[in-house]
Specification:
It contains 18 helices and twelve strands. It is an alpha/beta fold. Helix 9 crosses helix 18, helix 10 crosses helix 11 and helix 10 packs across helix 13. It is globular.
Length: 458
C-alpha cells in the first residue's frame, strides 16, 4: 500500500468548539525547567501552545497545525526534537515561559505594546493579521465604533482583543464586554452563531476558517490595522534569541513563510455563502451514505478519505446519478474511457465510481514527473484529473519558456490559463484547453477538504 499523503488543511482536529483545557497530553509536569542554554543538536525544544485550529491540534495523524509546522521547521533546522506543552489559556501559556517551563510559546500571539510593556519578549514577526469584529447575520451587528455599546460582546481573556477594546473604550466609555477563558476565539465564534452573544473579536485568519463552519458569521468592521504575530521566548535561555532571528530571517528570504501561508490559508481568500451553506447541508444529507466508500477506496491510495470526498463533491456534489453534457457520470464523474481503464463496469454505482476515481487519481499521481514534490504533486494530479495529463505537460513547457519553475503549482496557476489563448496553445503539443478550469478545480477541492475537517472534526 502506498504511503498516505495528508495535505495541510489548516483545520483538522478535535476540540474546535470548546476551550480544550488542560496542560496537554501528558507532556510533563509544571515543575519541569528548561536548560539555561539553547539545546545542543539532538536535544529537545519545549514549546508551550494553545489548542485551536490556527495553532495546535491533535487528530488521527498526530500533532498538526500552522504553529506546529512552523515550530517543527525551526527545530529541524537546529537538529532538535519538539515537545509541545498544551496550556488551557493565554495566562497559563505566558506563565510557562516566565517560569522556565518551556523555551518558547507558539500560539498565534500578537506582539502588542501592552505585552511589550509587561516585559514579554517576542521573537521575530512571521505573519500579519487584523482583529475583526464578528457578529451574526440578521442580528445586532455594529458598523461603527460608536455602535459597539449596543452589542453583547465577549472575547478571550488575556488576549490582544481585550487590549484593543480597552483602547477604544478611552474615547467611547459606554463600550462593555465580558471575557472567557479559552485557547482560541473558536468557542466564542460558535457562541455568536448560536445567538448566545452578539459579537466577539478574532484574528482575520481564524475568522476565515470559522466561516467555513459557521457561514452566518459576518464581519461588520475591522478593529485594527495589520498586527504582527510572533513567538514569545524565554529570557532565561542563552542563545535562543540569535537562533530565532537567524532562522526567521532566512524563512522570510527564501519565501518559506509565504509558502506556509499559502498552504494553510491560501484557499480561504474568497467566501461564497451559498456554496458553504449547501456544502454543510449535504454533509448531513448525502455524505453519510458514501463515506464508507471513500474510506475503503483511500486504503489503497496515497490519499486520505476526506481528500477523495472533497474531490467527489467538486465533481458531483455527492450525487451518484450526476451526468454532464459531455457524458461523464457518477460521484467521481468518470468518462467511459477512464472507467474502462480502471475496470469499472457501472459508473453510476457509487462504490464503483469512488473506487475507480481514486485509482485513476492515484495513477495520475504516480505519473507526475519526479521533480514535482510534496503537496504540489497532489495539485498536479488533481489538475490532470480535470484537464488531462497532456495539458499538464504543455503547461510545464510554457512555464519553462517563461522562466518559471515547471515543478511548482504556483507556476501552473499562472500558465495553465494561457492554454486557452491561441498565441500559446498553438505552440504546444496538445493544443487548446480551458486552462482556468483546473486551477479553479484544485482551489475548490482544497476548500472543500478544509471544510470537511472543520465540520467533521477529523
Amino acid at each position: 500500500m502506498r504511503r498516505k499523503f495528508i495535505i495541510a488543511a489548516g483545520v483538522s482536529a478535535a476540540c474546535l468548539l470548546s476551550a480544550c483545557g488542560g496542560n496537554g497530553a501528558g507532556l510533563g509536569s509544571s515543575s519541569f525547567t528548561v536548560g539555561e542554554t539553547f539545546p545542543e543538536a539532538g536535544g529537545e525544544l519545549v514549546v508551550a501552545t494553545l489548542q485551536g485550529p490556527t495553532s495546535y491540534m491533535e487528530d488521527e495523524q498526530g500533532e498538526t497545525g500552522y504553529e506546529v509546522e512552523l515550530v517543527q521547521a525551526f527545530a529541524a533546522a537546529n537538529d532538535l526534537t519538539v515537545r509541545f506543552v498544551v496550556k488551557r489559556d493565554i495566562e497559563a501559556l505566558l506563565d510557562a515561559v516566565a517560569n522556565g517551563e518551556v523555551h518558547l510559546a507558539a500560539a498565534g500571539l500578537t506582539n502588542t505594546e501592552a505585552r511589550r510593556a509587561a516585559q514579554t519578549q517576542f521573537g521575530p514577526a512571521y505573519k500579519n493579521v487584523r482583529q475583526q469584529l464578528v457578529c451574526r447575520g440578521g442580528a445586532v451587528r455594529p458598523s461603527d465604533i460608536d455602535e459597539l455599546d449596543e452589542a453583547r460582546i465577549s472575547v478571550v481573556a488575556g488576549s490582544s482583543y481585550v487590549e484593543t477594546l480597552e483602547g477604544l473604550k478611552e474615547d467611547n466609555p459606554d463600550i462593555g464586554w465580558t471575557t472567557r477563558q479559552a485557547g482560541s476565539a473558536m468557542p466564542l465564534l460558535a457562541a455568536v452563531e448560536r445567538g448566545q452573544i452578539d459579537c466577539t473579536v478574532a484574528d482575520s485568519n481564524l475568522v476565515a476558517y470559522a466561516r467555513r463552519r459557521h457561514p452566518d458569521l459576518v464581519v461588520p468592521m475591522e478593529l485594527s490595522e495589520d498586527q504582527p504575530l510572533a513567538w514569545v521566548r524565554s529570557t532565561q535561555v542563552e542563545g535562543l534569541e540569535p537562533r530565532l532571528e537567524a532562522w526567521f530571517a532566512q524563512a522570510h528570504q527564501n519565501d518559506y513563510l509565504q509558502a506556509l501561508d499559502e498552504r494553510w490559508y491560501g484557499h480561504f481568500d474568497e467566501f461564497d455563502y451559498v456554496d458553504v451553506v449547501r456544502f454543510i447541508e449535504r454533509l448531513d444529507e448525502r455524505l453519510p451514505r458514501y463515506r464508507s466508500f471513500f474510506e475503503m477506496a483511500a486504503q489503497d491510495t496515497p490519499f486520505d478519505w476526506p481528500l477523495l470526498a472533497a474531490q467527489a463533491y467538486q465533481e458531483s456534489h455527492w450525487d451518484p446519478d450526476a451526468v454532464s453534457a459531455t457524458g461523464v457520470r457518477g460521484l467521481m464523474m468518470l468518462t467511459l474511457a477512464t472507467a474502462s481503464e480502471v475496470g469499472i463496469e457501472n459508473r453510476l454505482d457509487p462504490r464503483q465510481s469512488v473506487q475507480g476515481g481514486a485509482e485513476y487519481l492515484a495513477n495520475l499521481y504516480d505519473r507526475i514527473p519526479d521533480g514535482v514534490e510534496g503537496e504540489d504533486r497532489l495539485w498536479f494530479a488533481l489538475a490532470a484529473y480535470n484537464v488531462g495529463m497532456g495539458h499538464i505537460y504543455d503547461a510545464r513547457r510554457l512555464a519553462e519558456r517563461r522562466g518559471l519553475d515547471k515543478n511548482s503549482w504556483e507556476a501552473m496557476e499562472e500558465v495553465l490559463p494561457l492554454l486557452s489563448q491561441r498565441e500559446h496553445y498553438t505552440t504546444v503539443r496538445h493544443g487548446y484547453a480551458r486552462g482556468h478550469e483546473p486551477v479553479q478545480y484544485v482551489r475548490k477541492i482544497r476548500e472543500y477538504y478544509a471544510m470537511l475537517h472543520a465540520n467533521l472534526q477529523i
